Amino acid sequence: MRLARVEGNVVATRKHPSLEGWRLVVCQPINLEGEDDGTPIVAIDPHGAGMHQRVVVSSDGLAARRAVGDNRSPVRMMISGIIDETEEAAA
After folding, report:
1. Greatest distance between any 2 Cα atoms in the chain
2. Average pLDDT over residues 24-29
3. Distance (Å, rounded) from C-alpha 17 to C-alpha 88?
4. Strand-strand pairing, 24-29 and 2-9
5. How many whole angstroms from its chain centre is CA 63?
6. Domains of the chain
7. In the beta sheet, which residues pair with residue 9?
8. Average pLDDT of 69-86?
9. What does pTM read for this prediction?
10. Is the four-CA dihedral 10, 13, 17, 21 of positive or negative sign?
11. How far apart are CA 30 and CA 38, in angstroms?
């Protein structure tokens, strides 16, 4: 699982049939300070995250394939949750 920020939507005129009806978003991985940390990824979004919202992205391909209902789907990344707020751990 990774922290990320939603940066945009993916528009595809042709895609795998298992992705029909699913919102695809571009997510920029970030570190705990909110700074970019890696290459942007594309994920399915079952939660309706808004632009620039912080999210948790799972790379569990099996869970993503189960979500779309097709074991042969090419989907791998899925937004697992939207981050409302964070707390710093007490030292």
Report:
1. 51
2. 98
3. 42
4. antiparallel
5. 13
6. 2-74 (2.40.50.220)
7. 25
8. 93
9. 0.87
10. positive
11. 7
How many residues comprise the chain?
A: 91
Q: Does 82 score more than 90 pLDDT? A: yes
pLDDT at 13 over 80: yes
The residue behind tokens 């990344």 is 77
- Token reading at 79: 């937004």
d(CA 6, CA 28): 6
The tokens for 48 are: 């309706």
3-state secondary structure the chain: CEEEEEEEECCCCCCCHHHCCCCEEEEEEECCCCCECCCCEEEECCCCCCCCCEEEEECCHHHHHHHHCCCCCCCCCEEEEECCCCCCCCC
Instruction: Quickly state the pLDDT bin for 86 (edges 50, 70, 90).
Output: confident
